């Protein structure tokens, strides 16, 4: 169910409170101080019980209604967590977001007491230890971490080239097994709503970051039920998936935090080796999974200025993305690739205040490593102010040694975009959106056509290397990795949107590229566009770009399911696919897990994860949207994290394990 006209009118009518206090922000933002590092990781507590079902008399409610409701009661249109997701979060996470996290600017007008009151209203302030962890610790004979086997999943792309392809030998699963899967167990994490972080798999150990729990878990998966080998505690929320590699003879895990602090962890013991901030500006965040190569850690850097800069009292815009190379032994910064020069005043926006630029080019994805050419490849996002440089909405080839840009390929020029200026989020029949002084000029294409998906470096049957890139415009690109020249492009999947098209990832198995298409709620393109762009997944010939098969998703709006979901119609395929032997596993925004035959696209297995689960650790568990990158396999089991409480999608807090019946 998309946002109603009545809701849109309420959103427009509350614009003053919304723009000053709620979804947007005020004030200036400056570059972050160089070399800052995070505080040492310490144990923490979590909210023990949800807030009362009805707490209208709570003092935090009036603050929420005045400051927060216009956005969080309309999450599809505002890209924010819905009220249902906020009520399942931890007090500490909400308070952290308001005090020093992503909502700091939005909450700048609130006192500390008011911030705590809002967090208490939403989550409840009662604190309790994560007692389930002690009960789940492995017995002595399962406690040791064995890192002698080769890792099957080392990061976002599973391998340095980002193929997202696992073999039968690596997983213990063959194509024929997927039609015979059953749920083996569910593991839940208290007061989590977004299971966005992909695990690493080494032998019998699955290393899983859970961002909202501020923890990384080493989970033994060798037997019928899991147990914990160790738990790493962070002092602030995490965000990226895990990366794994060897640094100076030591096996190391790396995770990036929401505050762009990189954590290096000893894989054997879970102890902290070092932390390092890679924040370039106060609005920098860590999203893409780092990658380890030749004793270095390469870290992509994104930003959220795009979400806060549309209001008139914000000085727009100065933030850009980048990639920082760190010494893997110490965390010392070696170089930083910046895709554009620092912003300078560009023009008077009409009220005597200046628009600054260039800005933008966030890097949301995980790098692909080309050791032979000495390059890493990343995709960039939109510009957030003029001028839109040629490194926005582009693929960049970056020298591994010094961070210089060898070549760039721009897919969409002049894409200047701020989320509060997106007219495609206006429902039919609603009054036009009043654009602020920072909104993009008329000559911008205003598409937000990021490369959110990681670039894949593939090798074709004839021995040629090809770069494959999926864009939020809905286009799949094939480029020459030597110079970035176009080999082919496939545009038949629709025009995309700011959250649509190819969102988080594609996969490659040597013959085919698999491209999922997202079409989120809260966007209102023309009927012609809606007819052309269907949520689903496509199998594409990697040599020619020809579409070999297509699966188009349809909503499951049965009466019972409507009672469980905020909307049953948000069926986009936003997350990255996973290829296992001759099968492709893919999640959807409404919580369905599907496995397809890689050659034909036939559905081998389907399972609705958007429901409650009985869990092995006794923590109340429920699934939701399957988004970002959350599907891996090992030891004859398929592992899926379910829950993504953003954009109006259903939240959840479970890691699910499936195995063939009878095993």
Automatic annotation (TrEMBL):
Presence of keyword Amino-acid biosynthesis: no
Pfam family, one: PQQ_2
Gene Ontology molecular function: any one: electron transfer activity
InterPro entries referenced in this protein's UniProt entry, alphabetically: Cyt_c-like_dom, Cyt_c-like_dom_sf, PQQ_b-propeller_rpt, PQQ_rpt_dom, Quinoprotein_ADH-like_sf, WD40/YVTN_repeat-like_dom_sf
SMART domains for this protein: PQQ
Enzyme class: oxidoreductase
EC number annotated for this UniProt entry: 1.1.2.6
Cofactor: pyrroloquinoline quinone
Keywords from the named record: Heme, Iron, Metal-binding, Oxidoreductase, Signal
Record-annotated Cytochrome c domain positions: 55-126
Source superkingdom: Bacteria
UniProt feature, compositional bias: Low complexity: 36-48
Signal peptide location: 1-28
Region (Disordered): 30-59
Family: Belongs to the bacterial PQQ dehydrogenase family.
Protein name: Polyvinyl alcohol dehydrogenase (Cytochrome)
